[in-house]
Amino acid sequence: MLGITTSGVNIKDIQLAPELEKNNITNIDCAITNLVSKKWEHISVNDIHKLSEEYKRSSIGFNSIQSVFYGKSLDFNNSQHHKQIVEHMKTICKYGSILNCRKVLFGSPRQRKDTGSRKNFIKIFKTIDSIMSDNGFIFNIENLERCPDTLLKRPVEIISFINEHNLKSCKLNLHLFVEDQWVEDSLLKHNLLDTIHLSNYEYTDKILLQQLPLLKGALSKIQDCPSTKIVEFQTNNILQVLKKISNM
Questions:
Q1: Mean pLDDT of 179-202
Q2: Considering the domain 2-246 in this protein, what is its CATH number?
Q3: Which of 130, 136, 156, 170 is least crowded, fewest Cβ atoms below 10 Å from its Cβ?
Q4: Rounded-to-integer distance, Cα 228 and Cα 248, Å
């Protein structure tokens, strides 16, 4: 299945759901703050119900909730922030239940800085894993190779971290760049792989459109692995790219 992420999409002047339907896109990663145009502290349950009703009228489904810490100055390494993080994740689960979306995407480089000690990071991660598991959610961890000084940068580190700490709700959200041809089949077939994001190095639509042969090659390789549930495109000017993607 094909989808898009919405964290960087400018949706002010378009009706996103109808445009996605017209271009055969069936899933989105839901950046709630972007789709309702409010900061987390100003979002209400009523806002989430309205968002849910809007998309129920379409054929578009929510694959996961992303940008969950956007605008939040919360640090996993700071134990004084852990209570706020726990309450925020419980709120995310409540919103996800309303949206019929039981996956959460964890990119959030600001929340996973490598400070040299992992004690507090591991502690809050285990707590989040329990919250996700108790509520029937999946917590997808995204690899962040291009973000310096972050924890869990590489896919193999994420897989090892999940196994080492026996995390029940966690899986891998594999972020690939169309320029990369290094992805091993074993990674694409791994039982912890849930979702793949495709973008280009600069997240630039003009360049991405020029790289359609690379994009087609990446998609072909991914689609040969039936264990992959969904492939999503990360882009900014979504209308420009949608028509190209839907014709591939």
A1: 74
A2: 3.20.20.150
A3: 136
A4: 18
Name the token pair of 201: 């190095």
Helices 45-56/82-98 angle, 10° precision: 40
Mean pLDDT, the chain, rounded, equals: 82
Please return the burial class of 159, using the count of CB atoms within 10 Å of its CB with bins 0-12, 13-18 and 19+.
buried
Position of tokens 């009703």? Answer: 53
Paired strand residues for 64: 29
Report whether 203 contacts 232 (CB < 8 A): no
Q: What is the mean pLDDT of residues 24-45?
A: 88
- Asked which of 40-44, 71-75, 164-168, 179-183 is least confident by mean pLDDT, the reply is 179-183
Q: Phi and psi at residue 161, in whole multiples of 5°?
A: -65, -45
What is the distance between the alpha carbons of residues 243 and 241, in angstroms, rounded to a whole number?
6
The ranges assigned to domains in the chain are 2-246
pTM of the full structure: 0.85
**According to the model, what pLDDT value does residue 224 have?**
61
Length in residues, the chain: 248
